[in-house]
Amino acid sequence: MARGSNELTKLLQRTSAMLLVLTAVCGQVRSASNRGGKFLVGGDISALTKIEQAGGVFRNEGRPGDAIEIMSKYGCNCFRLRLFVNPTYKNVVVNDLSYTIALAKRIKAAGAKLLLNFHYSDTWADPGHQSKPKAWEDLDFKSLEKKVHEYTRDCILEFKKAGALPDMVQPGNEIAPGMLWPDGKLYGLGDPEKQWDKFARLLKSAVQGVRDASGSENIRIVLHIHSGGDWSKTKWFFEHIEKRDVPYDIIGLSYYPWWHGSMEDLRENLRNVTATFDKDAFVVETAYPHRPVRLSKGEKDRNMSWPMTPMGQKAFLGELVHTVLETTNDRGLGVLWWYPESIPVKGLRIWYGGANAMFDSDGNVLPALSAFRETVQRTKVDFSRLASPIIFQGDHKYGFRDPAVVYHEDNFYLYFTLSETAADGGYYNMTAYSVSSDLVHWTYPEIITPRDRNLNYSSPGNIIRHGDKWIICLQTYPTPNIETFGTKDSRIWIMRSDDLKNWSEPELLRVKGNDVPREEMGRMIDPYLLKDAQEPGKWWCFYKQNGVSMSYSHDLKNWTYVGRASAGENVTVIRQGDEYVMFHSPSNGIGVKRSKDPKLWGQDTQLLTLAQKQWSWAQGRLTAATVIDLTREPSVGKYIMFFHGSSKQGLKSQRAHGAASLAIAWSDDLVNWTWPGNR
Question: What are the strands of the beta sheet with 463-466, ordered from one edge?
């Protein structure tokens, strides 16, 4: 958005949520932290399915449940999975492609992030073992290099096809000694520099495989070594990596105190490595016993300073999390527990007999999981920091209306209609967006549609994920002759994006059917897209035309018109339990309807006016609510409503946009709502 309008800039600076307007400031914030305010916690649960198949049962407060769902309730928002090439299927060495994808889909369904760990072996790869897959043993180096690229690419494509694309990828596991021995071994073989060159080429092939398969998706690369408490070894490894320009994003470390030093050793390493290499650091493996067990040969027992009890295990994790959170410049990305699901089951040899699990021998949650939940609670969106309901406040020239929002990678992307009153009394409607990680600080709005009265692309309904693209639905609202409202040529459209910032040219949405000519569709505005809860691949479109009209499609191109229901404009529909809940805009306030069928709607069950009587900026009209369900998002945990309000004076003097202001409220149950100043 051009910064040339002094009036708009002053207006934005007057809003109660102070904006990050200056590019320099935004740059400093971005360089200081790449994790967007969200600390990642969870575990490597690669053996979960195998343990479940062997009869393992996981319990929370005595009640059996899905282990991923249980861990999610305790704040876990990230999980790691390993992948073997052709696993031996001995004990828990079972992670072939189909097994791992199935588990990845469960992780994605829980709303968590996924770290995929390529072992490039048929069995365990670690500092003492980096054996090539048997099928690759006879390949010369160039062929091996090509195989690493093709295998990585093809695996990522399969995850993508399954709708379980990883958020991060590890090419190799604990690779300080290299990988794919002997070709990529870093010690004991000939010229060390030449071995490093070969190892770097293998890593680059793996990274390129990820990039080729992921396309525009931003999969972050983690290089993982085992030296959590050893700065000299970590420095040695990543200096060689940087020297050879191996692309990566995150430094991954293992930290087991009986192998890798004291907590102070880890703290020093994190401080040094993030400052030296300007990367986020992620403890991707850790564990500690909840009952006495011999973990080392005694020489490093001095680092086992926490009791080997359930509370001692929790104390260790709490201190570890705090240590990573303390990392300079907020570069500590998170902590993952290794093998939290390792409860004893018949027929499987379990690591240390299950002493390092986060569940006891009967599958009950141990206190250590609470350390994760307490961490997430400390990094949650803090609603108490909102001083006013208003996000953007309108005036005589600018109005902020019709919000739509999507929450992605720890950020709120808020789209809305930006209305500008022109000198001749007419107005321009444009669609703009702003981004925030905390609901307090919002970026300067960027306009994504033309400033053209003949089009007036505006009123974004919502943003969905369809295939490998983001899709936003919106309307045209032509006012070529200074009409107060959009003409009969108003229609609904979609645009597509890879990154939520850059959008394609609009495509007309033929929701009345492809056989209905554009000129005969009738005036239609305020679209909203909804995924059907019962029929996979089916999408509904709600739009304002003689009440609310409804159509459905399986490809967003071919639509079947269903009918209409009595409702106002700016419809939003979400799921709550087994019901659909509709929010719409009657003449004033926000109407609420409930139904088990997305095409059958009765009378309103509620009319929300919030604190309209006390809000001078909304006493003319309160309307256009959009609601997003973030109750399962650990860092938010609420339903959030964005809406706009118009003052009486604004409606009188600027009827087209009413000096509208965007505002916020939130709820735990969709019935009782809270806003800043109403605690």
Answer: 463-466, 469-475, 492-497, 507-508
DSSP reduced 3-state for 505: coil
Closest listed residue to residue 280, CA positions, set 305, 309, 250: 250
User: Which candidate, 305, 288, 301, places its Cα nearest to that of 367?
Assistant: 288
Cα–Cα distance, 83 to 87 (Å, whole number)? 9
Report how far residue 422's alpha carbon sits from residue 424's, in angstroms, rounded to the nearest whole number: 5
Dihedral pair phi/psi, residue 503, rounded to 5°: -120, 150
The structure tokens listed for 182 are 């002997």
Select which of 69, 145, 150, 174 is catalytic.
174
The answer to whether the CB of 635 falls within 8 A of the CB of 377 is: no
Q: Is residue 668 over pLDDT 70?
A: yes
Which tens digits make up the pLDDT trace of 545-575?
999 999 999 999 999 999 999 999 999 999 9
**Catalytic annotation on 7?**
no
Q: C-alpha 235: how far from its chain's center? A: 31
Tokens of 672: 């009782």
Q: Report which DSSP code applies to 276.
A: H
Please measure the distance between the N-terminal and C-terminal CA atoms of the chain and give it in whole angstroms: 36
Computed on alpha carbons and rounded to an integer, the radius of gyration of the chain in Å comes to 28
Sign of CA dihedral 236, 249, 322, 298: negative
Q: How far apart are CA 106 and CA 254, in angstroms?
A: 25
Measure the CA–CA gap between 172 and 161, rounded to whole angstroms.
23
- Amino acid identity, position 99: Y
How far, in Å, CA of 478 to CA of 453, rounded? 6
Closest CA to 379 of 316, 437, 340: 437
Cα separation, 256 vs 226, in Å, equals: 9
Tell me the Ramachandran region of residue 632: left when phi exceeds 0, alpha when psi lies from -120 to 50, beta otherwise: alpha
If phi > 0 it is left, if psi is from -120 to 50 it is alpha, else beta; for residue 478 that is beta
Mean local confidence (pLDDT), 110-135: 97
Is residue 239 within 8 A of residue 265, CB to CB? The reply is no
Given a contact cutoff of 8 angstroms between Cβ atoms, the answer to whether 106 and 100 are in contact is no
Main-chain phi, psi angles of 15, to 5 degrees: -65, 155
Three-state DSSP string of 86-151: CCCCCCCCCCCHHHHHHHHHHHHHCCCEEEEEECCCCCCCECCECECCHHHCCCCHHHHHHHHHHH
Which position among 285, 341, 420, 633 bears the catalytic label? 285
For 262-290, what is each residue's pLDDT tens digit?
999 999 999 999 999 999 999 999 999 99
Angle CA(142)–CA(143)–CA(148) in degrees, nearest 5?
A: 100
Which residues, at least 6 apart from 251, have a Cβ–Cβ distance to it below 8 Å?
A: 222, 223, 234, 238, 273, 274, 277, 279, 280, 281, 282
Asked whether the whole model's pTM tops 0.90, one would answer no
Across the chain, how many H-helices and E-strands are there?
Answer: 13, 35
Q: How far apart are CA 638 and CA 631, in angstroms?
A: 4
Q: How far is CA 567 from CA 40, 176, 600, in A?
A: 42, 63, 12
Written as one string, the DSSP assignment of 585-635 is E-SSSEEEEEESSTT---S-SEEE-TTGGG-GGGSSEEEEEEEEEETT-TT
CA distance 508 to 426: 25
Catalytic site includes residue 285: yes
Residue 90: how many other CB atoms lie within 10 Å: 9
Among 145-154, 196-205, 311-320, 647-656, the least confident range:
647-656
Token reading at 347: 């027929």
DSSP string, 512-558: T-TTS-GGGS---EEEEEEE-SSSTT-EEEEEESSSEEEEEESSSSS
Q: From CA 545, how far away is CA 523, in angstroms rounded? A: 7
